[in-house]
Design a protein that fits this description.
The complex is a heterodimer of chains A (266) and B (215). Chain A has helices spanning 16-19, 22-36, 42-59, 63-70, 74-87, 104-130, 133-143, 154-184, 194-200, 202-225, 244-265; strands spanning 93-97, 100-103. In chain A, helix 2 packs across helix 7 (133-143) and helix 3 packs parallel to helix 6. In chain A, 68% of the residues lie in helices and 3% in strands. Chain B has 215 residues and is mainly α. Helices cover 69% and strands 2% of the residues of chain B. Classes of the chains: A mainly alpha (266), B mainly alpha (215).
C-alpha cells in the first residue's frame, strides 16, 4: 500500500528553468506567493498567467503532468468555487435554483478565489517540479547562511536533510515490509477505534525505529571513520553559482511585481 | 560491534541550567540520529488518516510527532525542534505544498510547542513520572498554541482563498457557526486528540527503544 505512493514530484529534464540556481527559484517562488495576494482585478491575473505560461513552456514539462499534480486538490478547488458562489452576497441575481441564488458578485468572487488557489498551487509546484530535493536543500543551506550569526545550524540542517532524503525510499520500503510482516501475523492496522489503531501502531513503530537506528549507527560510524567534522572549511562537489539566466529570471519576476502593483494601485 | 560509550544525555541531577538543556552537540552521531528520526517522521506523515466524521477534512491525523518526541527525550529540545523543522521542509520539497506553505508552517509551530515542553521536563529529571508530566504539559501547550496560531495566523491566511463561512462550515458538526466555536469544537479537540495519541504511543514504545537511542 505504501509503495503505491509516488513520493517525489520532481520531473527530471535539462531545461533553462531546471538549470536555474535553486536559490533563485526559492526566492522567486516566495515573491510569487506574496505577489499573488496583491492581484485585485482580472487583468492582474493575465500577468500571472503569462508568467506561469512562460515558465511552463521553458521548462518543457507537459501541461498534463502539471494538471495531474492538481488532482488531489480538485475537491478543494471545486468546493472553493461553489461555496464562494453560494456564500457571497450580491445585488444582481443571475438565476435562482431552488433556494440557491446565484449572483453576479458571487460568480465573480468564485472565479477570482479559484484562480488564486490554482495559480498558487501551480506556481509553488513548479518549484518542486523543476528542482530536485537535493538542490533545494543546497539552496536552503546557502540562503540560511546569514543566520549563522545567531548560531542557526544551517550547514548541519542541510546535511541532515541530505541524509534524510537518501533514506526516505529505504525506510518507506522497510515500513511496507514490516506492515506486511505484521499483517501476516494477524496485525490489523485498518480497523477499530482510535485507541485500538494507535495501539496497533506499536508493533509497526518499534521495528521501524530499531531499523532506522541500526542504519544511523552504521552511517555514523562510517562518517566518524572518515573524520567528518562539520561545516568549517568544507569544500563541495557542486558549487552554486548565479549566471546570466538567474539575472534574467530576477528581471522577469521584477517585471511581474511591477505589472501587478501598477495594475492594482493605479 | 560498536563499543564506544557515549555519555551524552546520561548526566542526571536537577542542577542542569537552561543553557545546558538547550545545548545540542552536533557530533556526526547525533546529527545522523536526528536525520533518521526526521526520515521516520516524514514516512509517518505519509500514513495520515482524515477523521471526516467529526473534523473538517483538512485536519489530518498523523503520528509524525512521535519521532520528534523520542529525539527530544534522548537528545534534548533542540533536537526535537530540528526534527519537526526537517520533517516539514522535506514535505514541502518532496510532496510540494498545497497551501503555499501555510499548512507546513502551522504543523511546525504546533508540533514544536508540543515536543519542547515535554522534552524539557523529561530531561530535567528522567523518570517515568516526569515523562507523563511532560507529555501532559506538552498536550496542553500544543492545544493552546494551536488555537492561538489558528486564530491569528492560519485562518486569516486561509481566508485569502475562501470566505470564513466556508472554513467554518467545513466542520461536520451542526452547532459550529463562528470562528470561536470552530476553534473550540474543531481545532482544540483535534490537537488534543492528536497529541494524546502521540503521547500514549510514545509511552508504550519509549522504554523499549531507549537502550538503542542512547547507544
Amino acid at each position: 500500500m505504501l509503495r503505491d505512493i509516488t513520493i517525489g514530484q520532481y520531473y527530471p529534464s535539462d531545461s533553462p528553468i531546471h538549470r536555474l540556481d535553486p536559490r533563485t527559484k526559492l526566492v522567486i517562488t516566495f515573491l510569487f506567493i506574496i505577489i499573488i495576494f496583491f492581484v485585485r482585478y482580472y487583468t492582474g491575473y493575465l500577468f500571472i498567467l503569462a508568467f506561469l505560461a512562460l515558465i511552463v513552456i521553458l521548462s518543457g514539462i507537459p501541461v498534463k503532468y502539471i494538471l495531474k499534480g492538481l488532482r488531489p486538490l480538485l475537491f478543494i478547488i471545486l468546493l472553493t468555487f461553489f461555496i464562494n458562489i453560494f456564500f457571497t452576497a450580491g445585488e444582481t441575481t443571475l438565476f435562482t435554483l431552488w433556494f440557491i441564488r446565484v449572483t453576479k458578485e458571487g460568480l465573480r468572487q468564485a472565479f477570482f478565489m479559484t484562480l488564486r488557489l490554482v495559480f498558487l498551487v501551480v506556481g509553488t509546484s513548479l518549484l518542486t517540479l523543476t528542482t530536485s530535493p537535493i538542490s533545494l536543500t543546497d539552496g536552503i543551506e546557502s540562503l540560511l547562511r546569514p543566520l549563522r550569526v545567531i548560531k542557526f545550524p544551517s550547514h548541519e540542517l542541510a546535511m541532515m536533510m541530505t541524509i534524510a532524503l537518501r533514506f526516505i525510499p529505504t525506510l518507506l520500503e522497510e515500513t511496507d515490509k514490516i506492515m506486511k510482516a505484521q499483517m501476516a501475523r494477524g496485525a490489523d492496522f485498518e480497523s477499530g477505534n482510535l485507541i485500538q489503531r494507535a495501539k496497533a501502531m506499536v508493533p509497526l513503530l518499534v521495528p521501524l525505529f530499531v531499523s532506522a537506528f541500526r542504519r544511523a549507527d552504521d552511517l555514523a560510524m562510517a562518517m566518524e571513520a572518515r573524520c567528518y567534522r562539520g561545516g568549517e572549511s568544507r569544500t563541495r562537489m557542486k558549487v552554486l553559482t548565479m549566471g546570466r539566466l538567474d539575472v534574467l529570471a530576477f528581471a522577469s519576476i521584477a517585471a511581474l511585481i511591477a505589472a501587478v502593483l501598477l495594475n492594482t494601485y493605479l | 560491534m560498536n563499543k564506544t560509550i557515549h555519555m551524552e544525555g546520561c548526566d542526571t541531577g536537577n542542577s542542569m541550567t537552561i543553557k545546558k538543556i538547550l545545548k545540542l552537540d552536533f557530533s556526526a552521531r547525533n546529527a545522523v540520529k536526528i536525520a533518521m528520526l526526521s526520515t521516520v517522521a516524514f514516512v509517518l506523515m505519509l500514513i495520515s488518516f482524515p477523521l471526516a466524521a467529526i473534523f473538517p477534512p483538512f485536519l489530518k491525523l498523523d503520528i509524525s510527532d512521535i519521532p520528534a518526541l523520542l529525539g527530544g527525550f534522548a537528545l534534548g529540545p533542540m533536537a526535537a525542534v530540528l526534527i519537526e523543522l526537517i520533517k516539514n521542509l522535506l514535505h514541502i520539497f518532496i510532496r510540494g505544498t498545497m497551501t503555499g506553505g501555510i499548512g507546513e508552517l502551522s504543523n511546525f509551530l504546533v508540533g514544536s510547542f508540543y515536543v519542547v515542553p515535554a522534552s524539557i521536563i523529561y530531561i530535567i529529571n528522567k523518570t517515568r513520572k516526569n515523562a507523563i508530566k511532560g507529555l501532559i504539559v506538552g498536550i496542553i501547550s500544543m492545544t493552546v498554541i494551536a488555537c492561538f496560531s489558528n486564530y491569528f495566523l492560519v485562518i486569516p491566511l486561509y481566508q485569502k482563498f475562501m470566505p470564513l463561512d466556508q472554513i467554518i462550515s467545513s466542520s461536520p458538526l451542526p452547532f459550529v457557526n463562528d470562528i470561536k466555536s470552530f476553534l473550540v469544537f474543531a481545532i482544540a479537540p483535534f490537537n488534543l486528540l492528536k497529541s494524546s495519541i502521540a503521547s500514549i504511543v510514545t509511552m508504550l514504545i519509549y522504554k523499549k527503544l531507549s537502550p538503542i537511542l542512547h547507544k
